[in-house]
């Protein structure tokens, strides 16, 4: 009995001595949804955070049309990210919690001049911040401005950006949700360069909104240029990040009168050695539906479908090849071809690693094979035009 | 058996208990002193005997002594003595007194002893008849409802089993309610309860042993088991533990339960209680021992394993897939009722990163206006709910709904509108409360109810780490428990497939080819 009492006393001491040391009530915490990093005026960096404003959110919940912002932005300067985030506490009454950060915005200017390598260490080291946060570049404006404007446009600006990225990745394939850990991985592995989505603010008759605009291409952690539209899609095809997209084909002499929708795409890269030089084989496999037909064509004819497939293959191949050419000009291997060689042909990689970026990559030979199959025609079989002509 | 139960004309709800709580302690003491004194021998004089009995009963008004005369060659004075309310008056009047008074006994030249034999053989149309000449047995028989026939001039007396009196009629049990299944429940009369079980297992292999426990109350306690299925060591253990009980009073099976438990220092029940004869019968057929106590509808089943508290008799009456799904659901329910509020506390005060962002945002807006910390809020609401529950159980049925309305308004709406607690906390507390009601065994739910507070404290001080530590401790404790030598967590820890057929999952009968290892015989199930 005495022993039991003693044990109970000891056990209760566990609870009392622990003293709730890291207890943090929800209403005493500021939840950061986005971090923005710019170059600072007096110090090296200017870090801004977008914090959820609970009282602003409540008016949203109850459906009231209050103008209260659901997020607020604070910023502070510091010589490194860590210092700056601590400085922010001067201006905010709550302890910041970075566990819900979904967006890391870096200004284009900072990425171009300073590079991103030395910023990311402090961010990744922090145990609260998730490395699955999306990372973006703000094009033509500072990250602080971006966070400020973003807050006005959507309930939680950062969440909007993330959703938008997911959405465009799902259906357009010109941008892909780039995560922090992916960027860090590309920065740390050999024969690979980083790429980050660009965002800008569009002013449409007074209404401002954020739109995704191109992909920022890095070389050795520094922004060197932008790629857009077909080029960026060409890159994402190669990386296997295109989930679904649409391809316009010409048929019967008319321009872009057939649209097909691809899905279930797969990309494989393989490095082979040819005469002591690396060659990259890229194989794209995809399935497709007919999305839209604006031509008099008999879709029930398998020969027509085969013809369309051939055209689509050529179109995708063309897209990829031209994107590779463009990036070879920019001298940035964001495809990770070097990494493929490193993994597939390690001996060869040792030879080419030293001047990979400057010499080998820009002249690298690639072989692109596209294997696309049209599986379905959609709810309609033959095009509307054709049926109308038959009636006449 | 059948005869006696037919004779017992059950009148609904005019229940009276012979063991009512009205003895003053003083009286108990003197009674016990009497017990130790040597009993005076039975006299041959009828009046002395009657006087002795009246004195023993303190001239209680429910002791009926009916004197009359039977006609043999000589007129002989006799008396029938019984305790009013315990004995069945109809039998006494119609079958005994009438019988004896009406006819002239053709018994001349008989000694008194011979006469008694003659009477018992020819004139007493009653089931159990015993000739006695010892006060102790006689009095205890009378207190069981038997009546005594005394003859003047002999020290031998005849006790006749005329047990009767009013009791509640067999009714649907209030606990263990099922949708499909028999509607009968145990009642307060031991004999009826044993009959209810026997009616389900018509087999001489079902053995019944009865003993009296409680020096003051002399309560009948029976153990029932299937001789060929129940392991002998368990039966012996039950018997010896029951024999060791030294209690003044046994007013409910809970008294026995506390005395025969393997481990008293545990919040978990190691004895299964049920109000359903079909559940008791099923347990008997699994090789368990059923302990019935007179005066309560709750019978005890030992040994029991943790898993059994998640099983409901209805599982066996429903289809296998549904039963299995429901069992898993019940386990989930139990966990919710166990860790519901503590998990909420831990997540909101320590592990905010675990909460999905959109949920966090809506939680933030709710918590913005609340003055208390998560833990205080949770404790406040839990205590409020416990008050309501306790009040609801004890309240007269007429006022019950009023309290539940007030409770619903106070807990549900007013406290949120007044800004005392957050709506999310109300949801958590109500889900927990509903879960604790959905746990099939009340006894298990009540232990979860207690441990919930421990978990809440550990969640408030150490977060999820605290919850896990406490759960590990509880798990270790559960594994250390035994119920009559059977490990409490046994079906889960066993590697034998046969033990899992009817544990968490409920396999169809054609897949379960062996009885659970708990039982003595490994005979295949038919």
UniProtKB/TrEMBL annotation, chain A:
Asked if the Swiss-Prot or TrEMBL record annotates the protein with the keyword Nucleus, the reply is no
| Membrane topology (UniProt) | Lipid-anchor
Question: For the Spore germination GerAC-like C-terminal domain, which residue ranges apply?
Answer: 213-378
GO annotations of cellular component type: membrane
Spore germination protein N-terminal domain: from which residue to which, for each copy? 22-197
Q: Which PANTHER family match?
A: SPORE GERMINATION PROTEIN B3 (PTHR35789)
Q: Which family does it belong to?
A: Belongs to the GerABKC lipoprotein family.
Which protein is depicted? Spore germination protein KC
- Species of provenance: Paenibacillus aquistagni
Automatic annotation (TrEMBL), chain B:
Entry keywords, A to Z: Membrane, Transmembrane, Transmembrane helix
Composition-biased stretches, type Polar residues, lie in 13-23
Region Disordered: list its residue ranges: 1-43
User: What biological processes does GO assign it?
Assistant: spore germination
Transmembrane segments annotated in the record for this chain:
328-346, 395-414, 420-438, 450-474
GO CC terms of this entry:
membrane
Q: Name one Pfam family in it.
A: GerA
Family (UniProt): Belongs to the GerABKA family.
Protein name per UniProt: Spore germination protein KA
